[in-house]
Known about the structure:
Layout: H1 3-7, H2 11-22, H3 25-41, H4 52-67, H5 81-90, H6 95-106, H7 111-118, H8 122-139, E1 143-147, H9 151-163, E2 167-172, H10 175-184, E3 189-192, H11 202-212, E4 217-221, E5 237-240, H12 245-257
Parallel strand pairs: 1-2, 1-3, 3-4, 4-5
Helix pairs in contact: 2-3, 3-4, 4-7, 6-7, 6-8, 6-12, 7-8, 8-12, 9-12, 10-11
Amino acid sequence: MSLGQQLAPHLPFLRRYGRALTGSQSEGDQYVRATLEAIVAAPEEFPRDVDPRLGLYRTFQAIWGSTHADNRAEPDDGGSDQEAIARARLSRIAPLSRQALLLTAMEGFTVEDTAYLINESTSRVDALVSDALSEIDQQTRARVLIIEDEPIIAMDIEAIVRDQGHEVTGVAVTRDEAVALAMEDRPGLVLADIQLADDSSGIDAVKDILAKFDVPVIFITAFPERLLTGERPEPTFLITKPFQRATVKAAISQALFFDQSTAPVA
């Protein structure tokens, strides 16, 4: 099997990581593109002594690190509102901590693998993850709408949300109920499944809500292929069922990290 064939299954998830890290689909994709170009230009330098996925993320990390050598975000007046929000927050939080959090909690790497990817010790990775969760949570609080038709899963998600200090505005099990709840009590974050109780679509529910107002959305689904299509727009935050509680916590923190309603005051 060629190197390209080995890496192909991991690219949608590297794109997800790039989007979550930068807060921008276009900027995240630029880093992924640069990663692939680097591999094509010098395939002999690709790490062959580790799993291909590790080697792919290691190459991405090297490129990311080369443009963020000081480990701090630089002020920048350009770019979108979302990117400006990210820069404002990043000026307060070391990106290395966020990388450690995303790699372990969202991408599912072990602490040992994450240490390899960011070139730190395992104890340092543990400390970075703890710091990231603490610092991000201090900056963000939100009212959350949950769209999920499985009662046990909905209860689990609700507990996670409340444990982080957020408030749940409601739990919807159908498209119509989700839209009605969102209009009645505007949320600051939406957590949505795709397949709902009456065979309606969580995707359509989210589209209906976003047609009324902007709100960050995290999809939690057993069918990620319905969203990771390679076409625009794709969700910045996507969690695959069955999920880990830490993954949901990390995604919530990251989604709110880039949200304008909780942005730091300049």
